[in-house]
Design goal:
The chain contains 16 helices and 8 strands. The chain is an alpha/beta fold. It binds zinc ion.
């Protein structure tokens, strides 16, 4: 018997109801739309994603397709334009097919319209594929916007396997950074009494540890390994949804990456920046509490051929130092090893030299 789920129900859930990871779930998107009783799907995609993937999906949902929009620069401005254009149309679902920029616009738009969002990622470069958080730029500065999590995530490994290897490596960096984020969270629980959720923490950290242990033999284009990566990124997104904050997947290492973006030094991908941030912050956790292992972090990134030095991501040592000092001023209420230790510029210089980052 077919299971009928009401859209009203979908609107109240705060984590994905349907998650499909496999070789080929894109072919069943038409069935998914039918099962969810959706009749007016608005497709949001990018030009390249459309040619490679979304054009075929469009054919499969032709009957219930309400319209199609191609994301340009991304950001709130585009979301606002969509709301103005479609606010009075009978759209009952938003499907995003594309990379981070596309999914972020689709996610926030769906949230503003209070209708379910179906995420169909074409890259696995960060945990945004299943998280309720969108990263936009306003006036050249990065901002985070909280939306509802996707109602469904369709992660087709055939599509993801064909994405650039650099982006898969970035996904690896974003995933393993969870181990630092959760260390920061535990530290805050001890020092400030912050709420801590064991389920969310485990969901964020266990797949990350699995990836760290597997680094030696990891081939991200191989289906089994790619599954591990994608599953881990989706679980991170769900962990964020459970606690309603990015806490399980974003700590001091993300502050470093945000600082690079704020200062205009962010020339690498998100995952590359948080990967290098993770080496630095693991060092601090190890030095001050014996809980980190920066070498393990660095070696694992080297094994998968992700950058581990400032030079590799086009940064000068001075820029890294400036970003680290700036990172201490970002979102100080989120207590991390940075607030705890409050390192000086000289302290950071030592860390960079010892870890070989710069
Ligand atoms: Zn991230």
């Amino acid at each position: 018997m077919k299971r009928k789920l009401k859209r009203e129900f979908l609107n109240t859930v705060d984590m994905p109801l349907f998650v499909e990871i496999g070789e080929g779930p894109r072919k069943y998107i038409g069935d998914l739309i039918e099962n969810l009783d959706l009749s007016s799907v608005y497709l949001i995609t990018g030009r390249t994603s459309f040619e490679l993937v979304a054009s075929k999906i469009k054919e499969r949902i032709e009957e219930s397709l309400a319209g199609i929009y191609f994301v340009q620069g991304g950001g709130m401005e585009e979301v606002r334009r969509l709301i103005v254009d479609l606010g009075y149309r009978d759209v009952d679902c938003v499907m995003g097919v594309g990379g981070g920029k596309v999914l972020d616009v689709a996610k926030v738009f769906a949230s503003e319209m209070n209708i379910p969002f179906i995420s169909v990622p074409t890259v696995a470069s960060h945990d945004g594929i299943a998280s309720p958080i969108a990263s936009f730029k306003e006036g050249g500065k990065p901002i985070s916007v909280t939306a509802k999590p996707p109602a469904a995530v369709v992660a087709d490994l055939v599509i993801l396997r064909h994405s650039p290897i650099r982006l898969l490596r970035s996904g690896y960096g974003d995933l393993i950074s969870n181990t630092v984020a959760v260390k920061d969270w535990i530290l805050s629980r001890e020092k400030t009494g912050e709420d801590y959720n064991e389920i969310a923490a485990s969901m964020a950290v266990l797949p990350a540890n699995l990836m760290l242990s597997a680094a030696e033999k990891l081939d991200l284009k191989q289906i089994n390994h790619l599954t591990m990566l994608v599953r881990g990124l989706i679980l991170s997104g769900v962990a964020i949804s459970i606690v309603g904050s990015s806490r399980p997947a974003s700590g001091s290492e993300h502050k470093f990456s945000h600082a690079l973006d704020f200062l205009g030094f962010g020339r690498a991908t998100h995952g590359e920046q948080v990967g290098i941030g993770s080496i630095i912050m693991e060092y601090l956790h190890e030095k001050h509490y014996g809980t980190g292992n920066w070498e393990r972090m660095k070696i694992s990134l080297e094994k998968i051929q992700a950058p581990t030095t400032a030079k590799e991501i086009g940064l000068k040592k001075e820029e890294v130092l400036q970003a680290l000092m700036y990172a201490k001023k970002i979102r100080t209420k989120r207590y991390t090893i940075l607030e705890d230790v409050n390192p000086s510029e000289e302290d950071f210089e030592v860390v960079l030299a010892k870890t070989g980052v710069a």
